[in-house]
């Protein structure tokens, strides 16, 4: 978000082009002693991607590992085709000459190939079209008279969605490389934190443990439940009661040591414990940023913000000398006679059913949360400001990078203080949400249990990849829908995804689109109509809505944006 009129954000353009396929080096295996046939094993290493991309080579930037979806264990391969790159990932396996091997893999997502090359006889491959559930691909090959290594691979197809692969098997005689050792007992989970807290439940989150297939949750020293993912909600608790929690990681080898203890106190019966009575955010909501400064846009008081806006993000909080700590300083330029008058406007908006939150960051924001101390300082100071001013929650608009581990910890600490009615929004740039391995995307996924909506900034961007692997330029329906699809298919709920655009041509350096294009994108994503060349494979009727920078620039343009987009959002299915 921009403070200065006419300032331009950093433009990032992805240029489509050929991406060289990384050639896997041949693995040389010396002859085996004796003449007996080796026992059949899976000669592929790291077949379930539990060790990241270890033993695998993927074309540049196309491969990553994810925690969801997975077929087995805690990880799977995600291959993302882009331009002329089909997201090929390969491994050289050691084999016996004149031997037969069965090659198989579990796949889902976009069109996916599985194959083997360098067999010394006939190279093989098999494929399946797009699929929303796991499907097993299987083929077989025979090695040549002098073949000691074979390259096995999986890849997607040009212009199609990302694919996922897991539990790859190359089953046959041991070629001398052996197989992966059996699992060892996993280590202790780190980063255990308490998320949203109600009068009868506490949500727990922690960092996933490599090699773990499940987790056990302990309350006050007693095991109470298990989970297959690094989060869980403990229910059936008593109001206004303090509890201690620990978790352990498990797999077929056994249960690892317990984590550090985290304490959480349930709220009193009847709701959250911070910020006063907070109105609920509607199913479909319009978010607008209110400028606590004068940069040439219409100067407003909060009472002047049109009723079409459901969430008003006050921009921005200020950094202090203490890392992670924030403050808020009302700018005299916006015309309030006193802080009390400003607080009165917040209370009036909340009484009208609106949420007023405090935005942290902006184009020049310098708040850094990169360790445990700064995370706690952020949570404590943000909660104090919520208490002082009556803010419903916070917005994260850090455009100069963030640390997902400590930012998610800070937000969970804040939620534990503020209660389940806290509103949490985020406004990442397009580059931040291109894939789930980015720190912003990782943060959004880590706080899904308390996240209201991510309103990505579809402007000041340049061209970006859509979820189909094609490059789209800003300013079109396709740019809005194909990039939203990445978030919708990458783990966020439709209710946690919104479209962020400038309110006028003066609101951003580039990327302004007319309200008609915004409304067409909303139709395309929710009901499948008014799409451009890109049409999602399914609709998302629960999409949260839209956001604009800013209510002030909207007012400068006669509120044309909110008058057009507001009714459309509120009429979504």
Automatic annotation (TrEMBL):
CDD domains: FN3, GH18_chitinase_D-like. GO terms for molecular function: chitin binding; endochitinase activity. Residues 174-196, 250-278 are annotated as: Disordered. GO terms for biological process: polysaccharide catabolic process. It is an enzyme of class 3 (hydrolase). Its EC number is 3.2.1.14. The keyword Signal applies. Keywords: Carbohydrate metabolism, Glycosidase, Hydrolase, Polysaccharide degradation, Signal. Residues 181-196, 259-268 have a biased composition (Low complexity). Residues 1-38 form the signal peptide. Residues 284-573 form the GH18 domain. InterPro entries: CenC_carb-bd, Chitinase_II/V-like_cat, FN3_dom, FN3_sf, Galactose-bd-like_sf, GH, Glyco_hydro18_cat, Glyco_hydro_18_chit_AS. SMART domains: FN3, Glyco_18. It holds the Pfam family CBM_4_9. Residues 188-269 form the Fibronectin type-III domain. Belongs to the glycosyl hydrolase 18 family. Chitinase class II subfamily. This is chitinase. The lineage of its organism: Bacteria, Bacillati, Actinomycetota, Actinomycetes, Kitasatosporales.
